[in-house]
Amino acid sequence: MINEFLSKSLQFGTYDVSVQEALEVILAVFAARFFIYVTKKTLGKFAKNRRLDEGRRFLIFRLARTLIYIITIFIVTDIFGFNLTVLWAGSAALLVGVGIGLQSFFNDVISGFVLLFEGGVRVGDELEVGDDLVRVKNIALRATSVETVCGDLVVMPNSKIAGDSVRNLTQGQSTTRISVEVGVAYGTDVKIVSEILFYSMQVQTQVVQSPKPQVIFKSFGDSALVFEVRGWVKSPWDRNLIESDVRFKIDAAFRENDIKIPFPQRDVHVHTNL
Q: What is the DSSP code (8-state) at residue 169?
């Protein structure tokens, strides 16, 4: 009786599926969903106990879920009696063609694996990418979401972060160097300029006292003596504001001491033939 019921055919369009095959497929799908749920709960507890960061936990869960889906697909195809050898041959040819067109996509995904597993970049880290300062908001397999100093949310391909010269300002070192460059008129007492620059950087509340600020006499410019003052801060995210505050202090001190900041000048000679 049961065998007769299980052997009955169900019509799905042009396909005939037995009741037994349908039940086995349903069971396989439910089993997959169950294993995904268990994996997520187990990984959450493991991450909490071992202090696994959000990015790595997300990646491990995605890998485990993908593996469960692949196994489920194989089970379902076997239930329906598909020839897996033919399926693999066709899939391989298709993947070669698709892989060529999606080369950059796979490059981003592989870079995502590197970022998440190595832990060189984590959520909340402050990075210097080229001339831009950004804060990491989320790391996914293909791209990383970052926030700029202006508050804009930018999605960057993982290959850019993993491949380009990226400086992590959060990990490794406790302070970040800032600098302000200024030019003064020729004939100005360079000792007074050095003292003003050092003091303006030192009294800034967010500049650390160790290491101490440095004043560099950089060059003899075309129209100015060029100096650079350097300091170190613990919060690189506020670097632009700190440097701006130091410039205000320098400008005020220069005005008090009658120190001129020259502007480029160009002499134009006009020759007339009479």
A: S
Strands 132-139 and 153-157: unpaired
Q: What is the pLDDT of residue 10?
A: 57
Residue 176, both tokens: 């970040």
Separation CA 134–CA 154 (nearest Å)? 9
> Token digits for 139?
């790391």
The domain locations on the chain are 2-82, 121-168, 176-256
The matching CATH number, chosen from 3.40.50.150, 1.10.1040.10, 3.60.110.10, 3.30.70.100, for 176-256 is 3.30.70.100
Cα separation, 37 vs 44, in Å, equals: 11
- Secondary element (H or E) of residue 147: strand 143-148
121-168 CATH: 2.30.30.60
What are the tens digits of pLDDT across the range 183-237?
999 999 999 999 999 999 999 999 998 889 999 999 998 889 999 999 998 877 7
CA atoms of 118 and 162, how far apart (whole Å): 11
CA distance 140 to 142: 6
- The residues pairing with 143 across neighbouring beta strands, listed in sequence order, are 157
Residues 146-187 have pLDDT tens digits of: 888 788 888 888 777 776 667 777 766 667 888 999 999 999
> pLDDT tens, 116-128?
666 677 777 888 8
Q: How many residues does the chain have?
A: 274
Q: What are the tens digits of pLDDT across the range 227-271?
A: 999 999 887 778 888 999 999 999 999 999 999 988 766 656 566
Q: Confirm if 216 and 230 have CB atoms less than 8 A apart.
A: yes
Q: How far apart are CA 179 and CA 218, in angstroms?
A: 12
Residue 217 token pair? 């006499």
